[in-house]
Design a protein that fits this description.
47% of the residues lie in helices and 15% in strands. By secondary structure, the chain is α/β, with parallel strands linked by helices. Belongs to the short-chain dehydrogenases/reductases (SDR) family.
């Protein structure tokens, strides 16, 4: 129970990586708050996380809307009695190199992290330290011909993580990023591509030296490590979790 009675807020926690992270913290004794846009998925996630017997707060929040983020953070802090860890997980998945793609990536992948972190900082400071974990992507570490806006936004997340870490170090707030490779989970991007674009799915699978797609739990385990006392001297880092995919 590494996180017994700790307070963890996961932005975008109703499915996939966010849900796995929230469940991982709850299994280790944390009380968890999550948000997402869809009410049905949010309620299912709340029940799933709550199966570990820990307090769970869930509320709808459109992470493209700054006002909703500003309202959710203090509401979550009030429900949990404080905040020790903030996980910025959501993505707008801006894939198309047009106004729509760039707008989705900017508003969710970048500005949701900026806004949530700024709103959370005073609460993390009030508790004499804390941890912020930003979910980036290996797409932000190389050129992309399929998803330019998404890749550029994730590159910005990696850089902003370093800036956050430098800015918040005096308050003993550690800030790190995780860059997943191709992660497959029900309803996720690679689950859909398995059906809609099997050629790309198989080509990507073949590019991963470990011979499989990652799971949401692969990322959750690293998030728990980064938020734990075992990572107490780690800040401003981007941890790649990709089964060697970037090596190809």
């Amino acid at each position: 129970m590494r996180f017994k009675d700790r307070r963890v807020v996961v932005m975008g926690g109703s499915r996939g990586i966010g849900l796995a992270i929230a469940k991982g913290f709850a299994a280790e004794g944390a009380n968890v708050a999550i948000c997402a846009r869809g009410a049905e998925a949010l309620e299912a996630a709340r029940k799933d996380i709550g199966s570990h017997g820990r307090a769970v707060f869930a509320a709808r929040c459109d992470l493209a809307d700054g006002a909703q983020i500003s309202a959710f953070i203090p509401e979550a802090v009030g429900a949990l009695g404080g905040m020790d860890v903030l996980v910025n997980n959501a993505s707008g998945f801006g894939m198309t190199d047009d106004e729509t793609g760039w707008d989705a990536s900017f508003r969710v992948d970048i500005m949701a992290i900026v806004r949530a972190s700024q709103a959370a900082r005073e609460f993390l400071q009030a508790d004499e330290g804390g941890s912020i974990i930003n979910i980036a992507s290996i797409s932000g570490m190389r050129a992309s011909t399929r998803s330019g806006p998404y890749a550029a936004a994730k590159a910005a997340v990696i850089n902003y993580t370093m800036s956050q870490a430098a800015q918040m170090a005096r308050q003993k707030i550690r800030v790190n990023a995780i860059s997943p490779g191709a992660i497959e989970f029900p309803g996720g991007v690679w689950d859909r591509r398995k059906r809609d674009n099997p050629h790309l799915y198989e080509a990507t699978l073949a590019s991963i030296p470990f011979g499989r797609f990652g799971t949401a739990e692969d990322i959750a385990d690293v998030a728990l490590f980064l938020a734990s006392p075992a990572a107490r001297w780690i800040t401003g880092q981007n941890i790649v979790v990709d089964g060697g995919q970037l090596l190809g």
